[in-house]
Automatic annotation (TrEMBL):
<dbReference type="InterPro" id="IPR029044">
    <property type="entry name" value="Nucleotide-diphossugar_trans"/>
</dbReference>
<feature type="transmembrane region" description="Helical">
    <location>
        <begin position="20"/>
        <end position="37"/>
    </location>
</feature>
<keyword id="KW-0472">Membrane</keyword>
<keyword id="KW-0812">Transmembrane</keyword>
<dbReference type="Pfam" id="PF03414">
    <property type="entry name" value="Glyco_transf_6"/>
</dbReference>
<keyword id="KW-0735">Signal-anchor</keyword>
<keyword id="KW-0808">Transferase</keyword>
<dbReference type="InterPro" id="IPR005076">
    <property type="entry name" value="Glyco_trans_6"/>
</dbReference>
<keyword id="KW-1133">Transmembrane helix</keyword>
<comment type="similarity">
    <text>Belongs to the glycosyltransferase 6 family.</text>
</comment>
<keyword id="KW-0328">Glycosyltransferase</keyword>
<protein>
    <submittedName>
        <fullName>N-acetyllactosaminide alpha-1,3-galactosyltransferase-like 1 isoform X4</fullName>
    </submittedName>
</protein>
Amino acid sequence: MLGKLLRTFLILPKLKRLNIKWKMLLLIAFALSLMVIKHHFRIKKYLQKINLCWDQEAEEPQLSKWFNPKKRPDVITTTGWLAPVIWQGTYDRQVLEKYYKRLNITIGLAVDASGKFSYQDLQQFIQSANKHFMIGYNVIFYILVDSFSRVPPIVLGPLRTFKVFLIFRDSMWEDLNFIYMKNLHDYIITHIQHEVNFLFIMTANQIFKDDFGVETLGKSVAQLSAWWYFKNVKNFPYERRSKSAAFIPFEEGDFYYHSAIFGGTVQEVLDLITEYQKGAIQDTKNGLSSTYERHLNKYFFIKKPTKLLSPEYNWDPSFRIPPQIKCVKIAWQSKGV
């Protein structure tokens, strides 16, 4: 009995010491937990503040601050759904520059340089885009080719870089536009959407002649066709077969859009490509085949673009230049396409 008490007496100090250590550890753990919780809420509050600032800045300056349609009474400058049509003289780029510079945006330009376009087409496109496309902003050129041998030597200016993506063929499809758009859709999902704020899709048979700036940025941007802008809507080459997914009735239509250029936010570009793919697949099931451009026109007929680029942004130099065209931004090389 005496031995048991003695052992207990000897153990008790150790237990007390252990209890003190555990209490200290618990206190430290509690203090650390409080610090983590406090830090978490501080970060959350900071992120909410950043998000609030972004929300306040993400809204483009009011249209009246940078766009003056009265400067060009000779052309259509505003659509029936009140979207601006950008012509030389209608915009104040400096107002938009001040806004976009603050946001530190990155703009993507994806170019189709597949089999139907030449090595020279791509070389001229990249060289001219490097000189005129979104000067002063972060730019990523996404070059889609079916062979790396088609890529010329590329030297770019500051704030710009490029990435080359291979176009993978699909034995089920012969339509080059469908194959290209299918590949582009996949690359947007896996890469592009994580890297840019705005995205333009263009074909390689174009040469930039003048600055293509931030006045072109918008949620959904469509290019008016130089071939059809001065024609009557009744003559537009819309898809008129009622069974086609691209069908637009004879008595309807607004403008005819050129497939060589379209753009906007990444999500809007993805939506357009997705709808085009659905329409093309539907047509194939029904034994029909309509052009990519007609599907694009159907999309913009249903879902109106928020900004339109005048024919100045994509003029065919084989046409006589009318007085309405004050400044050719891009020359479209229609030969052989």
